[in-house]
Specification:
Layout lengths: L43 H39 L1
Bound molecules: zinc ion.
Zinc ion binds next to helix 1.
């Protein structure tokens, strides 16, 4: 089983009552309390979803960046071999 990351572990301190804001999660239709160390605006569940989404976007960005530089390097190397 994959180990839970801190933000997705309901037993982690960052998800404990210590971080309860007394406010509701900002997601429409969600009535859970906003309560995590990572954000005072989302409930535990929506915070996990939010971070996962951000991570996914970051990963896609990193992959795209890598592709760009790979192509750039190949391009530069090809030009260098001509001179
Ligand atoms: Zn929520």
């Amino acid at each position: 089983m994959e180990e839970l990351l801190a933000y997705e572990d309901p037993m982690h301190e960052g998800n404990s009552a210590k971080y309860l804001t007394g406010k509701r999660c900002i997601v429409e239709g969600c009535f859970r309390p906003a309560c995590t160390m990572w954000s005072p605006y989302w409930c535990f569940k929506h915070n996990v979803e939010r971070i996962k989404k951000v991570n996914k976007q970051l990963r896609a960005f990193v992959v795209a960046e890598q592709k760009f530089w790979d192509q750039y390097e190949r391009h530069v190397c090809e030009n260098e071999s001509l001179s």
